[in-house]
Amino acid sequence: MLKLALFDLDHTLIPIDSDYAWGEFTTRIGWTDPAEFSRRNDEFYARYQAGTLDVREYVRFATDAVRRHGPDAAAQAQARFMHEVITPALRPQARALIKAHRQAGDELLIVTATNEFVTRPIAQAFGVRELIAIELARGPGGWITGEIAGTPSFREGKVTRVADWLRARGHGWDDVHITFYSDSRNDLPLLEKAHQPVATNPDDTLRAIATERGWRVLDLFKEAS
């Protein structure tokens, strides 16, 4: 049986929200109006935490600055963001968790509701080849349009996208044993499909659910700090 270790990213493998941090970074480098962007970014983040986020509306907002500045400037900003913001957030506890699953022979996947532009370099920094993220639609010139391609990997969409990933490799749910680490109530659909759901640095709602259901609770950064 194929053993899969699935990891949410934000507040699970890293102690920050990479999407939110990218938005703050674009303001810091002068790509967005500080007051207006901060107001809207905070509003979307609150909706995410409350489980009421319209993910398509958010992706249009979150990718607006990247779309306007084009691929060359975006690539330079992305590299700077990785160096200044993400690299300091790559904690040894998370690297050790990934290493333990790799040494156990598990297939590793990061499954995130943050878009691929922000998260692919982060997955690479962790040495995780397989990434399921929100895929960005591209226009005739090959640049992103602000829309989502296919099913967004958000809430129930994570279950759909993992099922698609399995199907593409000739597998179904009955062929695999899944461990899934997540911090968020938004990931309950996939946590409920996992054989070993692990509430990792969980929000209050998920912590209560995990305790009630007898799921493992992992305060990753506290336990190894």
Structure description:
The structure is a single chain. By secondary structure, this protein is of the alpha/beta class. The chain has helices at 18-28, 34-50, 55-62, 64-86, 92-103, 116-125, 156-168, 188-193, 204-213, 220-223; strands at residues 2-7, 107-115, 130-134, 136-138, 144-148, 176-182, 196-200, 216-218. It folds into two domains: 2-14 and 91-223, HAD superfamily/HAD-like (Rossmann fold); 18-88, de novo design (two linked rop proteins), CATH 1.20.1440.100. Strands 3-2-1-6-7-8 form a six-stranded parallel beta sheet, sandwiched between helices. The protein is globular and about 45 Å long. The two termini are 34 Å apart.
**Major sheet:** 6 strands, parallel
**CATH superfamily membership of the largest domain:** HAD superfamily/HAD-like
- CATH top level of the largest domain? Alpha Beta
How confident is the prediction overall: mean pLDDT? 95
Poorly predicted runs are: none
Radius of gyration: 17 Å
- Global geometry: globular
CATH topology of the largest domain: Rossmann fold
The end-to-end distance, rounded to whole angstroms, is: 34 Å
Per CATH, the architecture of the largest domain is 3-Layer(aba) Sandwich
Integer tally of domains: 2
Q: Count every beta strand, where a strand is a DSSP E run of 2 or more residues.
A: 8
Structural class: alpha/beta
Count of discrete alpha- or pi-helical segments spanning 4 or more residues:
10
